[in-house]
Specification:
10 helices, 64% helix, globular, mainly alpha
Length: 210
């Protein structure tokens, strides 16, 4: 499948249609969940189904394009700034924060490609490269554990993203598990307290469980 980054430059009108479709896709996935029909997305975007299918052959391609745009807009600038910063450990956590913010706001987009690791790697390869550089720098600075590998970080990030299903969409409940991950990968424990605990939607913990 052609990845979003491989698309040829579009005419101005075509580019506007693509932008409207991606914006509508994010709205529809938030409101209707990962099973929303493409026809609903086209209607929300104000374009015909033919226009949508001319730009995106299936829902998977549209979801990847929407996720790719979110990463470019909200994560890539954070990664670039972190690579230019002096504190690599702080920069790595900022990148993870940015990824989790996107994951929380667009949880249903992620659900639509759940388990498709190969597809997601196609739009996150550059991000993982930035994380690897920050990890190596942090280890050189003595602020990150030397026994942590980039494979560990990719798996930890996948675990964090998976935990979004246990949180209210768009909430900041992810900040607590990120703080726990930071505690695990730093050579010295952060002095700040953990963020406040958030309840798990739909789950009531009884006294017996507690």
């Amino acid at each position: 499948m052609e990845q979003p980054s491989e698309r040829k430059p579009l005419r101005a009108d075509a580019a506007r249609n693509v932008d409207k479709i991606i914006t509508a896709a994010r709205q529809c996935f938030r409101e209707h969940g990962p099973e929303v029909p493409l026809q609903t997305i086209a209607a929300t975007a104000g374009v015909g189904p033919a226009t949508l299918f001319r730009n995106f052959s299936d829902k998977e391609q549209l979801v990847l394009a929407a996720l790719s745009r979110q990463l470019r807009q909200h994560v890539d600038p954070v990664a670039d700034a972190s690579l230019e910063g002096m504190d690599a450990a702080e920069g790595l956590i900022k990148v993870i924060d940015a990824v989790m913010q996107v994951a929380s706001e667009d949880a249903n987009l992620l659900d639509a490609v759940a388990g498709r690791r190969g597809l997601l790697m196609g739009i996150t390869g550059g991000l993982i490269g930035s994380m690897a550089t920050l990890l190596e720098r942090g280890q050189g600075q003595g602020s990150l554990r030397r026994d942590i590998t980039i494979e560990d970080m990719v798996r930890l990030l996948a675990m964090l993203i998976g935990a979004v299903d246990t949180m209210e969409p768009g909430s900041e409940a992810w900040k607590r598990p990120v703080a726990l991950i930071e505690d695990a990968i730093r050579t010295e424990r952060p002095s700040r307290p953990l963020p406040e605990q958030s309840p798990i939607p739909g789950v009531t913990l009884t006294d017996e469980v507690l």
